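Example A, followed by Example B.
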Amino acid sequence: MVRVGRIGLGLALGFIGVGCTTARETILECPAPDNAHIAVFFREYGGGAAGFQDEFVEVRRRGKADPVRILRLKHGYDIVLTWLSPMSLQIAYPDTARVDHWQDWFDFGYQGTDLKWWKTSLKTLPSKDGSFSNGEQTRCVR
């Protein structure tokens, strides 16, 4: 009886995992003014019938695969990435979106003996159902 129960549990857990893959779609890449780094707006989605989707912004060194995720949204389908300087990024997002994570300061390590800190700031724009409603569009400003 115990053996049959374990087999049934194993099969059930196996079926739960089927169809629960995650996909990633890059929506916008925005190089910094000095072209040393790139801010990327993307979405991750999946989960079959129940489904999920989150939107993210990350910054990575050009040509490297070491991103720092600085923003995670729910229902934020548009974004404006504005580089205020090579080390300062403003992120405008729909005011109807929910911010689940925001990292306002982050670093990419040392440059010589100096630790380089980056600054991000957030700005909301009028929206409806997660998309801009004031004529604004997803874009990159350098």
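Example B, a separate protein, is given below in the same form.
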Amino acid sequence: MIPHTRHANSPRSLISRRRRYQEKLERTIILEVPDGNGGYKSIKGRVMIDFWCDYNLVSRNFGNRIFENLDSAKPYIIVDSLGGEANAIREFESRWHCIDDPSIENPGLRFDPTMDLSTFHVMEREKRFDVILGYADIIKYDLLDIGKRPHFAAPAGFRSLRQSVDSTLGTTQAVCGN
């Protein structure tokens, strides 16, 4: 009987290789908030990088790990859309930094070990995330590595314009395309 060997192009090895290069836009984040005694309280969680979110958000559950008495906070509208309103109950500033994921060989996000300062909003209801970093801070702290984004072909129907021919030059110019 021939022993089983894993082929380089087997579905499992292809999936394994794809996972190494797949950017999940999630990382581990450490938030630091003032503890009231001149120091900082560190809280670790998972962060999602969301280009479509205008704000930095913290889930209710994660907010309970930071603050006491969130139940007495008055809600305010943070998002009003066709899908309804989303309320936040507290706004706060926090120092934060993200930890890069070593399992991603070609990450599309970049973080440095320094602490950045941002404003966050604790959501009124429990959500399925710890922290979301929104568009403004993605741009402000240059978190997206543009050089790592996939290169796309020209969209269907794309056609370059004809080059103009300058007849005053007296030279023949080739015109490409229709």
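On Example B: The chain has three helices and seven strands.
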